[in-house]
Structures are given as structure tokens and as C-alpha cells.
Amino acid sequence: MRNPFSNKINIQCSLLSVVWAVLLLGMSLGSLHADTLDIPIGLITEEEGRHIPLSLLQPVIEDIGEAGALQGIHDNNTTGRFTGQSFTLTVEKVNPEEPATQAFRKLHGQGIRLFLLNLPAKKLLKVADQPEAKTSLLFNIGATDDYLRQNECRANLLHTMPSRAMLADALAQYLAWKRWTKWFLVVGRHPQDKAYAKALKRAAKRFGHKIVEQKQWDFEPGARRTDSGHNREQQVVNEYSQVGDYDILIVADESDEFGEFLIYRTYRPRPVGGTHGLSPVAWSGVHEQWGATQFQRRFNEQHARWMTDRDFSAWLAVRSIGEAATRTASGQVDRLHPYIIGPAFNLAAFKGRPVSFRDWSNQLRQPLLITSARLTISVSPQKGFLHQFTTLDTLGYDRPESDCVN
Amino acid sequence: MRLKYPQNRLSILLLLQRLLGSILFMLLSTPLFAYTIYVSSEKDNQITVIDGKSLKVVDEVSVGERPRGIALSKDNKTLYICTSDADRIEVLDLQTMKITHTLPSGPDPELLVIGPQGKYLYAANEDDNMVTMVDIEKRAKVTEIQVGVEPEGMGISPDGKWLVNTSETTNMAHFINLQNMKVEDNVLVDQRPRVAEFSSDGKQVWVSSEIGGTVSVIDTESRKVLKKIAFKIPGIHKDLIQPVGIKIATDGKQAFVALGPAARVAVIDTTSYEVEKYLLVGQRVWNLAFSPGEKFVFTTNGASNDVSVIDVERLKVKKSIRVGRLPWGITVGE
Predict the structure, then answer these.
(1) In this complex, do A79 and B148 lie within 8 Å of one another by their Cβ atoms?
(2) Which of A40, A138, A346, B309 is least crowded, fewest Cβ atoms below 10 Å from its Cβ?
(3) Tens-place pLDDT, residues A328-364
(4) How high is the ipTM of this complex?
(5) How many angstroms away from the CA of B156 is the closest CA of chain A?
(6) Are B160 and B177 a contacting pair, CB within 8 Å?
(7) What's the rounded Cα separation, in Å, for the pair A77 and A87?
(8) All domains of chain A, ordered by start, with CATH?
(9) Measured between beta carbons, which residues in chain A are less than 8 angstroms from residue B169?
């Protein structure tokens, strides 16, 4: 097995992939097809600042989403080589203080109509509501907010990132299979933690769990790296978690401020799940079933890190465009969009069954992974959770529950 | 040690035993009956050897990491094994049951086919978008051909003119002309194509699409998709009907398609392209092989760790044979 972490730095890697994409483009122009159809895709991504993970083993990632999109571009171009289509990616970065609409209009002005958006929900909707966006097709690759799929749907906005409800349902189904039904819920101090907890509560109700204890985690995070960190965490978590008995502690800490500290430090000898520990995710570096090994290796070799769920969501978006472009022989939004949300569309996504879009919320339905830090523990939907149409729709808000009418 | 029987009776017994032995030997060496089934077990890193007459496991041979595609030499004396995680093709001498040497294959070989003359073998390298051509005798790589992303299925036309390779993420069947080793045509099929299999007259090539849930029947001459065969099984969601292995009878009348997690093999009338019957086999049925004379079809069932035996005449599953964990590839030698 090759070591995926070579000492290349990220910039070199992305440069390499650009060179690679250009080479492929050259090949397609040169050899197989005289007339190549150019299909440009834009990525607008919010710079989140340097996020320092709690674990030293986790890399600081600066091209999250972009790397996954590039892998999709490469995969599309390999097919494009044979079909005479050439895909390119243009990236616009915006900082948290500035709106994303300017970047959107800039790319739109360059003729781009297909967009990947790695933005918070509010900014996402602002872009989707621009007049120029009416003739564009947008993919949300980053925001998990349920209201984007429940109340604030937009016809031109598709979601390849799973919603919080889907993630929570995936975990709740596995815990139902395990019969770990008594939960101790620990919620972080941010609004997104509360939103995650809300999804967990809904899932608990749907799948027969009981939240027997709930606490808020209010400690200021402080510096990530200290020389005697464990002394404090050991004491604090031990005292904090002295509650009545439960089967599993479920943590809602989307900002990665404290969740990791809870594992192995609870007062009772109980496992931890949620945003940390046993986690529901769209993708993880640990996944290697259904042919994913080769997919992961390709990514590692190019980007010298493991693929994240946002990279995977970006890849899914680019591949959805690619698949529709292949089948419709077109790069036009008015041809691609109906195909992607239509009944004929399905996509192989290394998840053991085809993935497709829900026509009521524009959400991509897909199996979700239940992972530990090192392995895939299970894949949801779990056996026995039935559905009238597809068991994939047991994850997240189903058609009758949705307020969106498309 | 005391003898239980008088000497003369013992010798009669011995004689009888020998006689029986030689009758058994004669039976076994009759070409009609004597054949052997080889199964690769992806998880157990072994080749399971099954006697075709008794349908019992007679041997297990340890090989390199993650054996998947396997193929026999034309003289049936050698088995070539893609050991995917060992990045090579291992050569198993079937007389001594020892790995004698390895062949260069490029990284992560998944499936291989032997050319009609038996001189070259062709392997799909899932990791680097290549098909590798290897000279078996010289034990050397001859050339590599660039194909789509994650090459997998390998079908060779009976006249040796065409090699059809499928690429899982590109969703194409690549027609490689074996005279000049060039990709001459690319046929778009449904999602995640796995196996390519020619009809015995070479006029058609059938390609299974695991995630698309269909089998595309491609006309070799025009490279047009003549028919897309879809499957429908009551009580099983279409997402879980995932065609992989294909075998087409030599008389061209029937085809068998393994349907993965649906745990069924579809029997297809090759004239009407209608499914005649779904046969319940083991879980995650993957690849298929005919017995000599095509009286039986054998299946590898990855999730239930066994091989199902289908009686072709009666269209019934006759038996299942326990093998190593995650059985994947299967081939039958006389």
C-alpha cells in the first residue's frame, strides 16, 4: 500500500491537477474529437479561515471542496475525451464578510451557468435569488441546513450535500438496530449545533429513541494546542458527564470545539456518537467498499490528503453535470437540469446503489456511512426500515413532510 | 498389531478396493465428467478447487492479496490470477498446485482474459485507467492502452479481433482492435459497466451495468446498442438489481446474468431478449461459469460465501457449495 501522505504541499498538488486537466483537454482536442464542446463550471467557496483540528493527526485543509470538484472534472474529461466534451473549473473565493453575489455575477459574466456553491445557507439563497441565477443551475455542496430542503427550496438549487435530518436519521437507524435507545445529548454553543440537535431529536422520535439526558456545553474553547491539555479535559468531562444512566452520548458540535474531548472521558463507560465518535457522514477517508478504494487512491495521489464529505459532494455535483451532459449531448442548463431531476437520471457513487435527486426538495438521496475515526462501522439505511418507493427516502424529510412544492 | 481378518480375505478386500479405485479413476478421467471448478476468494486470499463430479471442495491454495479475476491457459494446465492488492498476476501450476512465477500486470489488476492463441493475456488495471497486454511466455509487458476511468470488464471476440473493455466511471465499452492495439470505438452504456461477454458467433457483445441495472446488447459490426435488457423482480427494489456476470450459451439460445444483491440469476431468451426466469441463488451473486458441455452454470455468491450450481436443462438450482470468504472469480477447466 502506498503512503497517501507524500510531502508534497497542497499548492503543488492543485497546480498538478490543473496541468493534468489541461493535458487531458489537449488530448481530447488533439486526438478523438474535432469539435469539442466546452462545459465550464464555476465554484464559489467561502474561505473559513484556518480551522485547526483538535487532533494533530488531522490535516489543516485549505482546498476543501475544490479538490473533490477537480477529481470530478478529471473523471468527466476522461469520458469527454470519447464524447467530445471538455469540462473546466473556475474557482472564486469569497471571505466571510463579503457577499457571494459579486463573485457569482463575475463568473456568470464569463458565460458560466453551472455552479458549485460552498457557502452558508443565507449566502446560498442570496445567490439563488439573483436574476442571473434563473438561467443557471446551482449545486449546494456545503450547507446541511434542513430549511433549505424544507421551506426555502429553490428550483435552480440542487443539494448534493446531505441535510442534517438525513445524517441524524442515518445514525438513529443504526442505533435502533443496536438497540442503544437511551441517549445523553450534549449540545454545543453555536446555532448550527442547536440545528444538529434539532435533527437528532426528530430522528430519535422517528426511530424509537429516548433522550434521557440533555446538557449544553458552554466552555470557551480556548487554544487548541496546550502543553498539559489532558489534565484539564480529564477532570472537566468526568464531572460534566455525571448524569443518570444512558446507552450512548450523542454530541452536537459542528465546529469541532470539544466533541473529541468526550471520547473515553465520560463518567460512565459509554460510547460517544454524533459529530464525533460514531459519526454519520456522506463520505470519509475510511470508506473503501463498492470500488471506493480506487477512487480514494486517485484522490490521495492528487491531493495528498483524504477526501472529505464536502469534496465528495463537490465530486457528486460535477459528476451529475457530466452524466447529464453525456446522456443529453449538451452543456445547456435547459437540457441538463430536467435530465438531472428526471426519472432517467442515476449516478454510480461508490455507495452500492444508484443515487438520484428527490424531485420535491432537489436533495440527492444516497446511502450514508456510519464511521469511526478509522473504519466504516455500518451504512444506512439499515435493513428492515421500509419505504413505499425507495428505502433511501427513509433518510431525511420525505415527500409528504415537505413544505416545498416544485 | 493383530489383524482383524484372515490373510486371504484381506487380499480379496484389497483387490476389490483396487478394482473400485480404477473404475473410479476411469470414470473421473472420462472427458464428459472430469472437470474442475476454480474459485477465487477475495477475502481469504485463496483459490478453492472443486471437483466437477462430486461437487466437493478438494483443495485450497493460498495466493497473493485480494485475488479477483482468474483465467485458465488454453491447455488447462495453468491458472492466471489477478491478485489486485499485490499488483501482479500470479501463475498457478495446476499439476503441482504451486505458484511458479508472477507476470507484470500494472497496478491493481482486476480482470484478465487470454487471447485466442493463448500467447497473450490482457488485464484491466482499475487503478490507472489502462489495459495491459502481457506476453505469457516471455513474461513481459508488451503494451498498455489508455481507456476510461476504472477499467474492469474484459471480453474477447471468438475470432480474436476485438477486445472489449468496460470502464466503471466512464460508463463505456471500449472496442480495442487487437491487430493494432488501438481503441477504435467507444459505446456509451448505463452506469458502472462490469462484464463484457461475446456471443459464441462473435456477432454481439453483452455488457452489464451494475448501477444502471441493465444489460446492453451491442452489435459488434455496427457498435450500436441493439437492446437494453432491464430486470424486474417482485418485492425487490430496482436499485438492488445489479447485473454483473454474464454467460451466453454456445448454441446462442440462452443467456445467464448474475444480479448481485438481488440474489438471482436471470435466464434470458437471446432471440426475444425476454427474461424467462429468475433463479434464486446465494447473496451478492457476482460471476458465472459454464461446465464443459454447458449442463451447469456455477455462480460465485460474495455475501453468502458459496457457489450455486444451476441445472441448465431444468433451470433449477441444484446445490450450493461452501467456499472461502467473498468468492469473486470463477472458471472451469476440463
Answers:
(1) yes
(2) A40
(3) 999 999 999 999 999 999 999 999 999 999 999 999 9
(4) 0.76
(5) 21
(6) no
(7) 6
(8) 10-162+283-366 (3.40.50.2300), 165-281 (3.40.50.2300)
(9) 75, 78-79, 295, 348
